[in-house]
């Protein structure tokens, strides 16, 4: 009961009313009187009473005071409930610690100087701790054994990284990108092309590529004009349809990139020359049919590049060339009205801008059209098969017989031809270069490159290749984000423009960046025609052989592919089943693709992989996304396999601490190439009815020496791997130095086969003595010869100059010996 309640229930005043407040008491008198009243009890001790406490109504304490008292209460409670019991448990432990510490100190004194002994024990403890840490890191995650030469101190588990890649490859994104990239016409230098290049650039940025460069270059470009261009019989009875379909938009019009216009109308007789091969011109000669001052009808195809056909026609005095496009079965229909557009710049002499052959368009001015070595000197234009058949039948049965009811004609029928192309001597083209910098050798790198421009919609060609390039970007940047990973050496992703114009985008980029590419690059992977059939096709430099075989074994087949043959599980099994149960890869990188400059100017080892085998409407508007999904890889499963294969190979090339270049495979294949060269030269000796004798003994001995010497690098790689696996410890500094030196030797060995900078080859863009494209090689892998080898020897043999053949063979032998002696050593 409160004091107020006690007072309220006590005695009342005489009036029967409780006073508003009890009366105040005199401090002294009250106590004295009280002593008189309570005489029977013990004396009461006097004390002061705080009037405020008794009489004032209770007040609420301030927040600070209440918090202070609550905290103090909590501390006392915690101490009583937890502190005291814990102290009871720790006191015996502390006593035990004191006891053992005393014993420890006594033991140290028995061993010797306590200060020295304690330091030795500390060092031993640190060594054991480091050992345990390295052991745990070696077996956990993608980080492998430690490497003293790497800035992160780690070698990464390449297999674990590669196995992770597949989860980032998506059919949906591949298909969406192909659909968008083929949604509009994008001839080089047009607004459609600019839209595509900005899309690629944005994709690079959005996926975390930190270094993205937008390169503007100058190049000659030309475009068709629907006004004033015609092909018709002189009597007016027939005119060719120079567009695909009724739409006269630019992408549908007939024209050949880098072809000149006519200088006014050409009115001349026309001659049919079949495929325009050397044998076809020989038939005309035997039949007494002259092509001088004539218009030539030539079919696309055969074993001679179209630009070489135009050059031959020019040399024989023809006035113009009309190309006849083939028929094609595509998207469930047969098309005889397709018009293919093909570059006629003289690529086999030099690639790049046709007005700056062999030099950068930014460094020196352009050459005159007539003075340039690689411009077509006569106008050309393509027509459809249907219109070509009309013109051929008009020739009757006169002249040379080419079979199938087709004759050359004798010059009795004439054509009128006028071509008005819009030309731009210097027009902007655009490359986009994205890169992931290396952590150990940032100045060295591999290059993934894809053509972006198209002469139509390019669904199965440039769009498919560019979409695959974008998927590779996504895969590698996803690895970065997941594992905080950077490759040992840099990785570059390049979208090339103007590939359809004599490889102008890659050729001009190489000319402008030649010094950097010469010093910094060591491999090029072309990303093109990913799925244009069902036959797995691999064209590669021999130095990739072991890597490709190894990675093919790690990629699973689709259910549809497994049905082709029993007991197949991987792409390696599929490749062997489709190629005579052999795993031999061709080196015939001779198509008009962006690897041509990298091989012939820099001697980069190159790779071109894809599912192929079907004819496609290359350079036609039939190559649309709608037709692509009807005819080719609509499920994207083959695209996924090629993305995984390219990513795995690229990862090995960029991440393996010791470069996975297969010099043993290279040496073995060089011996095989030498046998093919001997066969080719003998064929030419027979063709020219020559009695020349060519000695190959020096070359054979040099190749054998090359194989023996470079075995050292192979053994070093094997021993290095065994050491790292067995020790699971830091890579010694001297071993790291040897590894880096071995990598440098492997990269630099390729450059020794290039002609000196002060030398000028007979073909301005072709400097490679060991690998490269001979002038007369077919524009595809025909399986007849290893065309992409010993190009200068083959060139001299094809012209009948066997004295120079011997000189070039001996020069190659000397280079092989010097290279194997200087670059096979491991410091």
List the topology elements.
Elements lengths: L2 H7 L17 H11 L13 H5 L7 H49 L2 H25 L4 E4 L7 E3 L1 H8 L5 H11 L9 H16 L4 E13 L6 E4 L32 E7 L5 H10 L7 E5 L6 H10 L4 E5 L3 E3 L2 E3 L44 E4 L1 H9 L20 E5 L3 E15 L4 E11 L7 H25 L5 E8 L7 H9 L1 H7 E6 L6 E8 L4 H8 L6 H4 L8 H8 L16 H8 L3 E8 L11 H7 L5 H19 L7 H25 L9 H31 L5 H17 L41 H8 L3 H22 L4
Parallel strand pairs: 5-6, 6-7, 7-10, 13-14, 13-15, 15-17
Antiparallel strand pairs: 1-2, 3-12, 4-11, 5-11, 8-9, 12-14, 16-17
Helix pairs in contact: 6-20, 7-12, 12-20, 15-20, 21-22, 21-24, 22-23, 22-25, 23-25, 24-25
Protein name: CIC11C00000002559
InterPro entries: PA_dom_sf, Peptidase_M28, Peptidase_M28B, TFR-like_dimer_dom, TFR-like_dimer_dom_sf
Organism: Sungouiella intermedia
What's this, in brief?
Residues 694-821 form the Transferrin receptor-like dimerisation domain. The protein is of the alpha/beta class and 827 residues long.
Q: Approximately how much beta-strand content do the residues carry?
A: 5-15%
Instruction: Please give the count of helices.
Output: 25
Strand order of the largest sheet: 3-12-14-13-15-17-16
Based on the coordinates given, report the CATH architecture of the largest domain: 3-Layer(aba) Sandwich
**How many strands appear in the DSSP assignment?**
17
Tally of distinct domains: 3
Structure description:
Mean pLDDT is 88; it is low at 1-57 and 136-153. This protein starts with a helix and ends with a helix. Strand 1 (143-146) and strand 2 (154-156) form a beta hairpin. By secondary structure, the protein is α/β, with parallel strands linked by helices. It is built from 25 helices and 17 strands. It has three domains: 158-221 and 425-656, Zn peptidases (Aminopeptidase, 3-Layer(aba) Sandwich), CATH 3.40.630; 226-419, Glucose Oxidase, domain 1 (3-Layer(bba) Sandwich); 664-824, Transferrin receptor-like, dimerisation domain (Transcription Elongation Factor S-II, Chain A). The strands form four sheets. A seven-stranded mixed sheet has the order 3-12-14-13-15-17-16, with helices on both faces. A six-stranded mixed sheet has the order 4-11-5-6-7-10, with helices on both faces. Residues 431-572 form the Peptidase M28 domain. This is CIC11C00000002559. Residues 694-821 form the Transferrin receptor-like dimerisation domain. It holds the Pfam family Peptidase_M28.
């Amino acid at each position: 009961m409160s004091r107020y309640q006690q007072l309220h229930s006590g005695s009342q005043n005489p009036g029967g009313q409780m006073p508003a407040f009890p009366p105040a008491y005199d401090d002294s008198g009250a106590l004295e009187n009280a002593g008189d009243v309570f005489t029977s009890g013990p004396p009461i001790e006097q004390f002061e009473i705080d009037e405020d406490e008794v009489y004032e109504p209770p007040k609420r304490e301030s927040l600070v005071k209440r918090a202070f008292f609550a905290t103090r209460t909590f501390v006392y409670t915690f101490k009583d409930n937890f502190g005291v019991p814990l102290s009871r448990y720790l006191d015996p432990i502390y006593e035990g610690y004191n006891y053992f510490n005393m014993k420890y100190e006594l033991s140290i004194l028995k061993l010797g100087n306590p200060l020295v002994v304690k330091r030795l024990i500390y060092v031993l403890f640190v060594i054991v701790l480091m050992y345990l840490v390295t052991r745990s890191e070696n077996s956990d995650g993608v980080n492998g054994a430690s490497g003293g030469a790497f800035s992160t101190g780690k070698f990464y588990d390449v297999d674990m990284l590669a196995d992770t890649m597949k989860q980032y490859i998506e059919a949906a994104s591949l298909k969406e990108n192909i659909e968008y990239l083929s949604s509009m016409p994008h001839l080089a230098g047009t607004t459609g092309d600019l839209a595509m290049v900005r899309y690629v650039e944005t994709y690079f940025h959005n996926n975390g590529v930190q270094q993205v460069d937008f390169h503007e270059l100058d190049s000659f470009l030309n475009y068709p004009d629907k006004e004033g261009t015609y092909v018709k019989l002189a009597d007016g009875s027939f005119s060719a349809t120079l567009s695909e379909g009724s739409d006269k938009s630019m992408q549908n019009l007939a024209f050949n990139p880098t072809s000149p216009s006519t200088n006014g109308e050409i009115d001349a007789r026309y001659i049919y020359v079949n495929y325009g091969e050397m044998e076809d011109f020989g038939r005309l000669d035997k039949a007494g049919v002259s092509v001088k001052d004539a218009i030539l009808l030539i079919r696309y195809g055969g074993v001679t590049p179209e630009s070489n056909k135009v050059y031959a026609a020019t040399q024989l005095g023809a006035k113009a060339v009309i190309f006849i496009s083939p028929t094609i079965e595509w998207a469930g229909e047969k098309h005889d009205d397709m018009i293919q557009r093909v570059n006629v710049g003289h690529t086999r002499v030099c690639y790049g801008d046709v007005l700056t052959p062999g030099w950068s368009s930014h460094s020196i001015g352009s050459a005159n059209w007539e003075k340039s070595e690689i411009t077509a000197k006569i106008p050309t234009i393509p027509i459809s098969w249907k219109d070509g058949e009309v013109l051929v039948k008009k020739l009757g049965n006169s002249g040379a017989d080419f079979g199938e009811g087709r004759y050359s004609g004798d010059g009795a029928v004439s054509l009128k031809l006028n071509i008005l192309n819009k030309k731009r001597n210097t027009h902007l083209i655009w490359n986009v270069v994205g890169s992931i910098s290396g952590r150990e050798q940032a100045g060295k790198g591999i290059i993934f490159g894809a053509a972006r421009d198209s002469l139509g919609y390019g669904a199965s060609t440039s769009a498919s290749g560019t979409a695959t390039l974008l998927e590779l970007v996504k895969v590698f940047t996803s690895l970065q984000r997941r594992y905080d990973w950077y490759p040992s050496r840099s990785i570059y992703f390049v979208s090339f423009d103007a590939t359809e114009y004599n490889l102008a985008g890659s050729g001009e980029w190489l000319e402008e960046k030649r010094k950097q590419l010469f010093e910094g690059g060591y491999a090029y992977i072309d990303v093109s025609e990913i799925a244009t059939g069902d036959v797995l096709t691999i064209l590669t430099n021999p130095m990739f052989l072991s890597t490709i075989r190894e990675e093919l074994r790690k990629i699973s087949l689709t259910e549809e592919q497994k049905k082709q043959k029993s007991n197949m599980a991987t792409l390696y099994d599929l490749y062997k089943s489709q190629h005579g149960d052999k795993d031999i890869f061709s080196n015939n990188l001779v198509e008009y693709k962006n690897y041509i400059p990298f091989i012939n100017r820099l001697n980069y080892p190159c790779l071109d992989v894809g599912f192929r085998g079907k004819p496609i409407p290359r350079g036609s508007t039939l190559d649309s996304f709608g037709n692509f999904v009807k005819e080719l890889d609509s499920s994207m499963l083959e695209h996924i396999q090629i993305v995984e294969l390219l990513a795995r190979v690229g990862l090995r090339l960029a991440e393996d601490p010791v470069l996975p270049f297969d010099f043993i495979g290279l040496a073995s294949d060089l011996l095989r190439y030498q046998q093919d060269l001997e066969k080719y030269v003998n064929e030419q000796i027979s063709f020219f009815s020559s009695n020349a004798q060519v000695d190959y003994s020096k070359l054979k001995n040099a190749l054998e020496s090359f194989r023996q010497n470079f075995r050292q690098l192979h053994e070093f790689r094997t021993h290095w791997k065994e050491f790292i696996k067995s020790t699971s410890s830091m890579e010694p500094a001297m071993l790291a130095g040897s590894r880096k030196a071995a990598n440098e030797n492997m990269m630099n060995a390729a450059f020794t086969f290039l002609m000196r900078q002060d030398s000028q080859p007979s073909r301005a863009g072709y400097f490679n003595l060991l690998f490269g494209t001979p002038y007369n090689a077919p524009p595809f892998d025909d399986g007849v010869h290893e065309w992409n080898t010993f190009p200068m020897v083959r060139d001299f043999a094809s012209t009948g100059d066997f004295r120079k053949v011997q000189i070039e063979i001996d020069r190659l032998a000397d280079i092989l010996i010097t290279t194997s002696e200087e670059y096979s050593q491991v410091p």
